[in-house]
């Protein structure tokens, strides 16, 4: 009986986590300070900048997002690693930013080949 409950719980967690993922576009950047949220304070390397779509006048600063590559946006074949990464929003991606979430290079490399430069993603807060 307890194995059935654990299996059912795992199914619910899977359905819950995938049903609320939002599609977007991911890119990466390499200069992490100064940032719009924390100025000159270094906040590690698993960080990201939020586009205007997510920025909400800076209310997104410090929030964590789980990001997963879902496919290519250019001619680079099979860019995704199959992994996901959790990042903290520390910056604002400037107007004209090509992505929804601009990941640090280290975070991008966890989920996709950096040669790709731009990918389709799913993200969850």
Automatic annotation (TrEMBL):
Residue ranges of the Expansin-like EG45 domain? 24-125
Signal peptide position in this chain? 1-21
Which domain of life does the UniProt lineage start with? Eukaryota
Which Gene3D superfamilies does the protein's record reference?
RlpA-like domain
Asked if Transcription is a keyword of the record, the answer is no
PROSITE patterns xrefs: EXPANSIN_EG45
**Stretches assigned to coiled coil:** none
Does Magnesium show up as a keyword for this record?
no
| Keywords attached to this entry | Signal
One Pfam family per UniProt: DPBB_1
Q: Which InterPro entries match?
A: EGC1/2, Expansin/allergen_DPBB_dom, RlpA-like_DPBB, RlpA-like_sf
* Protein name (Swiss-Prot/TrEMBL): EG45-like domain containing protein 1
Taxonomic lineage from the root: Eukaryota, Viridiplantae, Streptophyta, Embryophyta, Tracheophyta
Query: What's the gene?
Result: LOC104717158
């Amino acid at each position: 009986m307890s194995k059935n409950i654990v299996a059912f719980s795992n199914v619910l967690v899977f359905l819950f986590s995938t049903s609320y993922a939002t599609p977007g576009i991911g890119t990466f950047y390499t200069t992490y300070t100064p940032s719009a949220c924390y100025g000159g304070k270094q906040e590690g390397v698993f960080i990201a900048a939020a586009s205007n779509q997510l920025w909400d006048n800076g209310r997104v600063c410090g929030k964590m997002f789980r990001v997963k590559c879902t496919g290519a946006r250019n001619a680079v074949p099979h860019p995704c690693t199959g992994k996901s990464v959790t990042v903290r929003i520390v910056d604002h991606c400037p107007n004209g930013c090509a992505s929804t979430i601009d990941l640090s290079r280290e975070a991008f490399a966890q989920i996709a080949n950096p040669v790709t430069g731009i990918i389709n993603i799913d993200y969850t807060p």
